Fold each of these.
Amino acid sequence: MENNFFKSVIDADDAPVVICDLEHTIVYMNPTAVKRYEKRGGAALVGKSIKGCHNEDSNAKIEQVIAWFKKDKGNNKVYTFHNEKEKKDVYMIALRNDEGELIGYYEKHEYRTRESMAMYDLRNGEN
């Protein structure tokens, strides 16, 4: 039952979430990621290698980060990119099992634009 809660959190995220295993296979994409990467295949990317979506330099960096994640259970987050146009920072995040062993990774997008929604506005777009 708890997996439903975790999936709901990921699916509700406005940022794209693409989860990969250690063989770089895409194992899950949230709805935002499916839409964002629609021109590259969208949901059909699940089951394929993330390396097919990146150039040689990016793939080498992914391998470097994975090696760093494996060195220590405390190595879990790496800043990888800033997108000025979208005002976001991008990170690679380690995914670990209960024993702390590395089982995969995902890319985390953190937007830096101040929220325009009014606080506690429960109208859902109604005026």
Note: The longest strand covers residues 102-111.
Amino acid sequence: MEQSIQQLMDWLNNHLNETIAIEKKELRDLDKVHFNLESVDFRSADDVIDEYLGSALILRGFGSTLNADGELVSLPQSTYDLAVEGLQIVDLADRKAEITTDRANYILSVD
């Protein structure tokens, strides 16, 4: 596992049983999720058949997001996949992490 992936995984593991606000900016789309983090696993691209599913950190727990109508809705699954292909850590502080990947820019912060 690459060092930057391990650093992010360690940061997430330091915030188990806390709520993490995840802001994901992909192209012109901005998604915000509040996720109660229970555990974190790593999935290697070698372990999946579907080419779209690359290496990722799998956040386990439960979360919610705002829909297009501005209503708070629960996430459909108890996981959140954070793709880590091309991961670069921009800033890693105690309660906030800013990262970029091949797919998106993320800001993770502890609520």
Note: The longest helix spans residues 3-13.
Amino acid sequence: MDQKAATIEIPELIQFLQSSLNDLPDERKPGNNTKYQVEDAVMAAFSIFFTQSESFLDHQRLMKNNKGKDNAESLFSIKKIPCDNQIRNLLDPVPAATIFRAFQEVYQWLNKNGVLKKFLYLDEEILIALDGTEYFSSQKINCPHCNCRNHRNGTTTYFHGCVTPIVVSPNQKQVINLEPEFIKKQDGYQKYDCENAAVKRWLNKNNQKKYGYPVTLLGDDLYSRQPICELALKQGYNFIYVCLKTSHKTLYDWLEFLERSGEVTTVEKKQWDGRKNLIYRYRYTSRVPLKDEDSSLEVNWCEVTVINEKTEEIIYQNNWITNHKITENNIEEMVKAGRSRWKVENEGNNVLKNHGYNLEHNFGHGENHLCELLLSLNLLAFLFHTVLDLVNYTYQKVRKILVTRTTFFKDIRTLLKYLWFKDWSHLFSLIITEHDPLKRVNSS
């Protein structure tokens, strides 16, 4: 398919979620009040995240009473709107993995329609950045799967976290988030879970072949350990991981020896950033042992130091290990790939935490799966908006008209509170018309 012609509408994306909602667990006994369906509870929770409005369902109940119709049904196919407590009770038995198929179908659509080609980097590879983040924290609420921190003052903080795999590219402002891997105490285990163990589970579940392209994994210093590197290679991945001197004594002892032997190559390039000349000093070498053992994995190492040419101030410095062969021709691209790991924080987790999705807000904890399912629905809402921003012309036009993400969601919330829309096209057309004087005159 022609990449320029690829487009998708909100109902199609929502269908990816709805198609995964078959045979949902329902722990209510036949005699209980089953007025509300579990599927409606899932879609109700999703609608809150997609509109970034905790009051969305309350407004739609009021609209239903006043007008006999509501946006929850017309835009999200919610037949009957449960209250917040009913939503939490209905969703607690539903494993988060129930909706992971929706993440996978979105990825497959992007691949099939050529959209992923925009993200290809290095040797036509997909870059997947891995990073851990917390999304629930409380000193009172906890469940059997919570991890915990004991503080010096005698208090305990209970928390949930996850690893968020995200497709990134130095050439794209958007990121594509994949289904998460949860950092939680595992069934049958007494030990608390950690990011390291969660990444290993993710690697064992997800072979590189599922992504349709060669994949290079990006990660911080936590990932540049032999067990994770070896597992990544076993699963078909390449990797570029941050590698700090403080945690890799053997590797950096070898680097000192290689440098004295003249086996560390240095390349310098100048670049004007619009205000000042920068010197990019690259250093790299091959086949350095990762640890002090005969069985050590050998990796390739590189470093970049960014210097203000005029002041000689060091602006940035970092180091990585990789299984990719490093040459003078690809060192700049290799470093750009390694540095794009920050997109998982800047364009991913930072947006989710601070720009409307409120990732760390306690939407509900539950006793079983509620916390994880709500987190997954929030991530899915973020993914749907990202896809629309990538391929839907009308959505792009509305975002451009309203300029900021904050204004976009504020206007959406206001319109959905007071007006009924038969579909999303109706809503977006109203925004476009109201901001186009000629169309406004013609429509009147």
Note: The longest strand covers residues 277-289.
Amino acid sequence: MVTVPRLVIAAPSSGSGKTTVATGLMAALAGRGLEVSPHKVGPDYIDPGYHALATGRPGRNLDPWLTSEGLVASLFLHGAAGADVAVVEGVMGMYDGATGLNSPGLGAPGSLGGGDYASTAHVATLLDAPVVLVVDASAAAGRSVAALVHGFRSFGTARVGGVILNRLGSDGHERMCRDAVAELGLPVLGALRRHEDAATPSRHLGLVPAAERRADAVDAVARLGALVASSCDLDAVLALARTAPALTATPWDPSDAVAGNAALRERPRIAVAGGPAFTFGYAENEELLDAAGAEVVRFDPLRDESLPVGTRGVVIGGGFPEVYAAELSANGPLRKEIGDFAKASRPVYAECAGLLYLVQELDGAPMCGVLDGVRATMAPRLTLGYRAAVAVADSVVARTGERLRGHEFHRTVTEPSHGVGRPWQAAWQWSTSGPEGFVKGGCVASYLHLHWAGSPWLASRLVGACGGERV
């Protein structure tokens, strides 16, 4: 059994201040000299970037839908190894989760019911972690705040252990809210005043990623840490975190997940896109590639004019190429090299932003041209949600008929939306509306994001396709 002091930051609804409090709390505790392990419920890529700045450790996601219920505690312990305390930021409202999860072959949604599956409450229960409820009190008086807190404490199985009041307007407002919550027997662990100066800029997919505004993001995280340190009882927060019992799960190990796959005659070099335009990725995916025998190296399509020497495979994850379309297009040498690399049937795995980088044009700007004749444009609506995908073609990572759990998160569309036969086939299907994505030779590109801890064979297959010859 492993004991890790931990707590989950939840809220009644989105926009209540979870990210402000969670990131600020991480920074404040790290400022005390503690080793803080940061985590995020759900598939979101952006908040973990700020968590990483606050703690100096990789931000990691905990998502029962993407990886399974059984892996949540194990992945948590893997990420929290060596930490003094772990802070888990929730998602949406505390009991808001995935719906419609009874997809064929994926099993029942779990004990909390379809609407609660993969919610903050679900993950808090799987981690047996106390919950700190962040309440936006900007438009409520004391007793209404208490009634809200009482409802969340008495609903479901998650244990609410304390409250942080957010966006208070005055000393009198704070006193009313504190007194009302005290009647419930719950501690008020902090009280934050309105703090517009600590806001983080947003755009069409949420917060602007930290990697795009490094210096400003560092300053923003420092301000959040100072705000929480001055507004919260950190000793009481730590005391609550230490009430979390030991976990019986075994820490996840990427080497065990790809057992028997690391005995290679050589380690093929796999280049993973990074930099401001490609900021989305799960830390475990690269850890699995490494455990499966690859040498993982980074490159930045905005700045590097060639792939790393000796590259045998390319991974291009998510991000915001639409924001950097002109700069990406201007890097002609790299676009040509990646185009030639893919057209030679060498392995290229692309998700979402990677798909956009491989098309012929993105909002009129020439891209790599791997997907000849495919054009991408911005769309009026955000496409967002979990996907129960089925592979409809063999590729370097999947076999026809295999089922995987993923998600979509984009505000662009491609025309056509999928391969329609030779030379390109479709990659996946997850609804009656039709297939999605593109497969040809060694290239697979689609809008589907995958957390490889839930399907570790993806890494093994990609490494094998890159020439990882077994001993």
Note: The radius of gyration is 23 Å.
